[in-house]
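User: I'm writing a short methods note and want a consistent example. For NADH-quinone oxidoreductase subunit NuoF, I'll paste the sequence; you return only the structure tokens, no commentary, since I'll be parsing the reply automatically.
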Amino acid sequence: MSGHLITVFVPRDSAALSVGADAVAAAIRAEAAKRDLPLRIVRNGSRGMLYLEPLVEVETPEGRVAYGPVTPADVPGLFDAGFLTGGDHALGHGLTEEIPYFKKQERLTFARCGIIDPLSVEDYRAHGGFRGLENALAMSQAEIVKVVTDSGLRGRGGAGFPTGIKWNTVMQAKADEKFVCCNADEGDSGTFADRMIIEGDPFCLIEGMTIAAIAVGATSGYVYMRSEYPHATAILRHAIKLAYDEGWLGDNIHGTDRTFHLDVRVGAGAYICGEETAMLESLEGKRGMVRAKPPLPALEGLFGKPTVVNNVLSLCSVPIILDKGGEYYRDFGVGRSRGTLPFQLAGNIKNGGIVEKAFGITLHELLYEYGGGTITGRPIRAVQVGGPLGAYLPPSQFDLPKDYEAFAAQEAMVGHGGIVVFDDSVDMAQQARFAMEFCVAESCGKCTPCRIGSTRGMETLDKIIAGKNVDANLELLADLCDVMVDGSLCAMGGMTPYPVRSAVKHFPEDFRKKAPAVRVTHIAAE
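Assistant:
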């Protein structure tokens, strides 16, 4: 940081841009010029407190001081209040690190997000970046895999499969070529952690993928991005170019005999391409349809070669594990759910954003201590956890610890950490119908239980909502859900019943509403 220049941070994160961060940055620049005050503006990632965006921070000797949410109209007043030296203002929150929402978190994966300039290798290095990769470059493949296995890291995309076991399978596979593919097709409702870390700390993903490649003997990798993330895609492509320029990607990484080439591919908006085999089909230039397993992608993946397929958050957890050791990471969490997960609070919530905490935190803590309840001020009636295939949970289940096994026991899932909140005005029969409707729209169509089952499910729910033969149709719906769970090729059809069953189980009254009485008017014959 330049000694004499005051540094002001204005996020370039998509969430901040959507509420005017660019205009705020321009207003600060213009106001500083008008007052002849030299300053440096850094466009950082988001700190994850989305309810305060655009969150403007100023570097002071005591630390960074936060102001938000800031509009361009607020900027002259901030200068008048002396915000460049941390002066008091109505929008002031004091030191960013002391804001309770932020202070109580355990930032491992998101340690740098919102702190550094996302496109500065120098900044990344100064905050511990590439230390894990440097350690990995001096280790054998088996040693790297052991550290990841010892950490207890599991897939953060939803399935929760142990990362070390997957890597070990690919490492031991014999092939002339291997790949590492990152699934950045973040399509779940209420999720934005992948996007936020790619926009706020893209080198973390590059480092994690490079470590994975070294561990398993892969030389090429691809990040499969969703088309709805143009800012993240642009930032990642820029970061990859910088990593090549600095010798962190390409042939002979930092003078070693290790090689890894990385590229970005953008999907076309299909939810099913978040399923690993459909993603591989799409990467190969084919229609995104689910493959039957076996063979597993770890043995026959991209172009029929052994392939590591991991989610963004899984790969972004790897650098800190290789930097600080598997035991350090394993010390966070409960049971078989080790480390931290960035939980994402969305929907009808007062304080939406990212809360990175160790596994074991309850839904109640997340919703009330961090989220602050609903934005409407009405009681929370239901939350959907883990995306559109996740169960709807009522307040009686809010003390459930966030832990893969505890949720699975309730036919629910932690998934990617997304939490969508509904107040007491929600109609849960309509939400159940939406689950089936979503499956109709997003099914790849390869298997009958999913393709046809979701359509029949929607029709059956329409009859229930209309009050027609409710008991018989609820029985039919339960039978249909069993067929979809047991017979679908992948989790798309196999988990669509989760939100439906949970809505029927926890909110039965919404499925037995009296059908509106039909008024019959007799018209006398002429």
